[in-house]
């Protein structure tokens, strides 16, 4: 049980519109609501694409991951404003059954996703907003969720100035290999950033 300053709030949650009104903004700024529950649930990572769509990772299995023997429910959705009113009115499920996808980054016409213990590439090849390519690029990233803080898993993807995706791993034992290139020597990444 959590107590003290970590105890859950005792007041009811505000509606999205009431929460928006509570923000204090500098002069000249405004805040608008693009999406809220039930369109998006448990968001942990998000970014906009070149078409103005919001891509969101939803973690249903946080913080321990799916129970052993069950499929994970974590997923990536695409929220769109199709009528130009500034609110998301269309939701597409891009990928499902992901295992604690803490980070993603666009690249090579698809997404590179942290999907413990893998770095996975997802791509929609037929334009239906659903990933129909799912390929493990690297594997072996630490995956000991029950013994570690989830935030120490594969995370924090960002494009670097060197045109490479950079990321981080935590204190887990991470010995990385490439299923597509088994001849490559395994690489130890415990607690290091990488590209």
Question: Could you characterize the architecture of this molecule?
Answer:
The protein has 195 residues and is mainly beta. Helix content is 3%, strand content 33%. It has one helix and 13 strands, in the order αβββββββββββββ. The strands form four sheets. It has a four-stranded antiparallel beta sheet with strand order 1-2-3-4, with no helix packed on it. A hairpin with a 2-residue loop joins β5 and β6. The N and C termini lie far apart (39 Å).
Descriptive keywords:
four-stranded antiparallel beta sheet, 13 strands, 195 residues, mainly beta
| Structural class by helix and strand composition | mainly beta
SSE string, helices as H and strands as E: HEEEEEEEEEEEEE
> Into which percent range does the helicity of residues fall?
under 10%
Largest beta sheet: what is the strand line-up?
1-2-3-4
Strand content: 25-35%
Arithmetic mean of pLDDT: 89
Low-pLDDT ranges: none
Counting DSSP E segments of at least 2 residues, the number of strands comes to 13
Gyration radius, in Å:
19 Å
Number of H/I helices: 1
Euclidean distance between termini CA atoms: 39 Å
How is the biggest beta sheet arranged? 4 strands, antiparallel
Query: How would you sum up the global shape?
Result: globular
